[in-house]
């Protein structure tokens, strides 16, 4: 008759003893679990046994005594003691991190790993004397892009030139080129010519093209942003070269601010690019000297600079071509936007024959603007950092600014001092300090009126002030990016 058991996994609860009465025996000595005191109940392991527990405790006590008996050096700057393999590993890891911070990546490292290029072509690149179409230069540039495709690179073009080609086709009339209706008309005339030129030249190299037109509103809305991403990715899967342009015919204020530079940076986020190349009428970003009278003089080209370097915007000068809408400042700002997504930027001369091949060959040409610290946005934050346009602004006190920028915290109601603008919940807003300097962007949990009512109050008071509470935060850190 089988013995009665109170707890089959407790060896002290067995009433009968010995193999004949079903008392469990230790697993075979060659079984590694046997050394840990586990029981074998007819093929099912159960334990540990009291003997195993006692053995493990004794072994642990012996190890502790031996560790305390060894002489130890005081902790060093790495946080590890100076003896033993673990300390050596931590010290080496600490030193390697220091080296990485001290020594930036070389140009060749950035260029060699770039598989998807976004190439922005300015109007001045394929115009001669700022008025006549330079068809040989245009053909050479397309041939250069085709050479990248032959290397297995993916290329998305962002091309200006529709307005310029429209004016050229109409004989360069004397109307004021800042007149918005005229610019929209020239864009409509020139866009079809621009695409036909691309189709003809790429066709000579066996490639098909596709026209993709965006307005700023297409990138403000996250759903349309994601739809655009899927469309561009599908074009690449089909082996088609997307040629992106702003829809100037329906745009208004964007015609004045060189938005194709910003559009190129946003396109990097859309397609997950590895490199942004901005081709213009200048060779590079140059160092600047200012004389006593305040006159700026460009000196030597800058080979490489970090996107976070405050000197970068100081050296950005105005447009020199008189053809394009964006100057060097808009190109630098586009590079900074791309840098927040971890994408480096090369600014160089588009009229130089074989310029893209030279960049791909890692030649020291143009200016490489490397991503800054804290770069590498992903997912929704790509859209927040590059695509979305803010509809309001929250001014934060000093404590909130430190918590957001240094500790990666969420924005609480107590940290909000002023609300600018009217907007519903879920809106994109800028975050700024009390002086108005913008340092971030995020999605609000509450609308502007609700934020005004809870601003400066503790999170525990939200429900009493509003009658409900969604979250304890005004902007959650998962929906926030630093600029």
Please specify the SSE layout and strand pairing.
Blueprint: E1 25-26, E2 39-41, E3 44-46, H1 50-69, H2 84-102, H3 107-112, E4 116-121, E5 127-128, E6 132-133, H4 135-150, E7 154-159, H5 162-169, H6 180-203, E8 208-214, H7 216-220, H8 222-237, E9 240-246, H9 259-271, E10 275-280, E11 286-290, E12 296-301, E13 304-306, H10 311-315, H11 328-340, E14 345-349, H12 355-360, E15 367-370, H13 380-387, E16 392-396, H14 398-407, E17 416-420, E18 428-433, E19 438-443, H15 448-454, H16 462-466, E20 480-482
Parallel strand pairs: 4-7, 4-10, 7-9, 8-9, 10-14, 13-15, 16-18
Antiparallel strand pairs: 1-2, 2-3, 5-6, 11-12, 14-15, 16-17, 18-19, 19-20
Helix pairs in contact: 5-6, 9-11, 9-13
Subcellular location: Cytoplasm
Domain PUA: 392-475
Pathway: Amino-acid biosynthesis; L-proline biosynthesis; L-glutamate 5-semialdehyde from L-glutamate: step 1/2
What's the helical proportion of residues?
25-40%
What is the CATH fold-level name of the largest domain? Carbamate kinase
Which CATH class of the largest domain applies here?
Answer: Alpha Beta
Domain tally:
3
Which outline best applies?
globular
Parts with pLDDT < 50 across at least 5 consecutive residues: 3-53, 72-102
Count every helix, treating DSSP H or I runs of 4 or more residues as helices: 16
**What separation lies between the terminal Cα atoms?**
78 Å
What order do the strands of the largest sheet run in, or round the barrel if closed?
8-9-7-4-10-14-15-13
Query: Could you describe the largest sheet, including whether it forms a barrel?
Result: 8 strands, mixed
- The H-level CATH homologous superfamily of the largest domain, spelled out, is Acetylglutamate kinase-like
Q: Mean of residue pLDDT?
A: 79
Structural class: alpha/beta
Task: Evaluate the radius of gyration.
Answer: 32 Å
User: Architecture of the largest domain, CATH level 2?
Assistant: 3-Layer(aba) Sandwich
How many individual β-strands? Answer: 20
């Amino acid at each position: 008759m089988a013995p009665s058991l109170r707890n089959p996994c407790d060896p002290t609860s067995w009433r009968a003893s010995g193999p004949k009465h079903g008392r469990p025996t230790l697993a075979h000595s060659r079984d590694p679990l046997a050394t840990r005191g586990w029981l074998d109940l007819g093929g099912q392991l159960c334990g540990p046994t009291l003997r195993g527990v006692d053995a493990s405790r004794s072994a642990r006590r012996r190890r502790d005594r031996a560790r305390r008996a060894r002489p130890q050096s005081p902790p060093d700057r790495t946080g590890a003691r100076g003896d033993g393999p673990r300390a050596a590993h931590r010290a080496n890891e600490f030193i390697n991190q220091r080296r990485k911070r001290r020594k930036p990546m070389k140009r060749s490292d950035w260029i060699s790993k770039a598989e998807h290029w976004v190439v922005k072509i300015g109007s001045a690149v394929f115009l001669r004397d700022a008025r006549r179409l330079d068809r040989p230069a245009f053909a050479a540039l397309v041939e250069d892009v085709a050479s990248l495709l032959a290397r297995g690179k993916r290329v998305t073009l962002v091309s200006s030139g529709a307005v310029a080609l429209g004016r050229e086709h109409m004989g360069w009339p004397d109307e004021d080129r800042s007149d918005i209706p005229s610019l929209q008309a020239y864009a409509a005339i020139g866009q079809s010519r621009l695409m036909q030129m691309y189709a003809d030249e790429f066709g000579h190299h066996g490639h098909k093209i596709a026209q993709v037109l965006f307005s700023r509103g297409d990138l403000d809305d996250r759903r349309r942003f994601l739809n655009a991403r899927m469309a561009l990715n599908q074009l690449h899967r089909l082996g088609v070269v997307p040629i992106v342009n702003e829809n100037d015919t329906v745009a208004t204020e964007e015609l004045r601010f060189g938005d194709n530079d910003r559009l190129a940076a946003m396109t990097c986020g859309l397609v997950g690019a590895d490199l942004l190349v901005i081709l213009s009428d200048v060779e590079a970003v140059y160092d600047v000297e200012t004389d006593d009278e305040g006159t700026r003089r460009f000196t030597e080209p800058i080979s490489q600079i970090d996107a976070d370097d405050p000197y970068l915007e100081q050296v950005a000068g105005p447009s020199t071509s008189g053809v394009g809408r964006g100057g060097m400042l808009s190109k630098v700002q586009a590079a900074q936007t791309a840098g927040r997504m971890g994408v480096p930027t090369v600014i160089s001369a588009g009229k130089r024959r074989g310029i893209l091949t030279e960049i791909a060959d890692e030649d020291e040409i143009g200016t490489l603007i490397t991503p800054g610290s804290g770069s590498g946005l992903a997912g929704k934050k790509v859209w927040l950092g590059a695509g979305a346009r803010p509809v309001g602004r929250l001014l934060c006190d000093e404590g909130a600014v430190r918590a957001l920028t240094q500790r990666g915290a969420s924005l609480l109601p107590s940290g909000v001092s002023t609300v600018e603008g009217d907007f519903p919940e879920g809106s994109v807003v800028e975050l700024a300090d009390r002086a108005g300097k913008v340092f971030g962007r995020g999605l609000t949990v509450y609308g502007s009126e609700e934020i005004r009512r809870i601003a400066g109050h503790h999170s525990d008071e939200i429900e009493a002030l509003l009658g409900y509470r969604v979250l304890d935060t005004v902007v959650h850190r998962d929906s926030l990016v630093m600029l």
